[in-house]
Amino acid sequence: MSHPYSAKILEHFRRPRNQGTLEHPTVSQEGSNPLCGDRVRMELSVEDGVVREARFVANACAVCVASASVLTDLVRDAPLDEVESLTTDELLRVLDARLPAARMACVSLPLTVLHTGVLLYRQREVEAP
Q: Quick check: 27 and 123 in contact, CB under 8 A?
């Protein structure tokens, strides 16, 4: 019997990359999906507008954990402008996944949390004296 998830999703779920917390994150944002209970926190270390380190913590389904794992790989050493322009479609391509619409929230939760964290970080930077 074949598995409904791609090999990439299973790989990142079974052996997530960058799982855990940063000692002093520049960006730390948490979010959840109240419909399914997925919860994820994304943390970044940002220097000179570039993500130097990315980590995540999740209590979530396989798709959400895999998405967060892939996302941390994608944003490391990326300028914040590129991080802000990442899309769910790009995550799906990297995950090599074609998921039903009902599972799209699982893919997009880490990205939404990350985008929110970066937005709040940028607002703090503008407001700082």
A: no
- Main-chain dihedrals φ then ψ at residue 93, nearest 5 degrees: -65, -45
> Domain limits of the chain?
7-127
DSSP string across 57-74: EEE--HHHHHHHHHHHHH
Q: Which tokens hold the place of 99?
A: 């998921």
How do residues 41-92 score in pLDDT, each as one tens digit? 999 999 999 999 999 999 999 999 999 999 999 999 999 999 999 999 999 9
Is the pTM value of this prediction over 0.85? yes
CB contact at 8 A, 33 and 63? no
**7-127 CATH fold:** Sufe protein. Chain: A (3.90.1010)
Q: Which two tokens stand for residue 1?
A: 């019997």
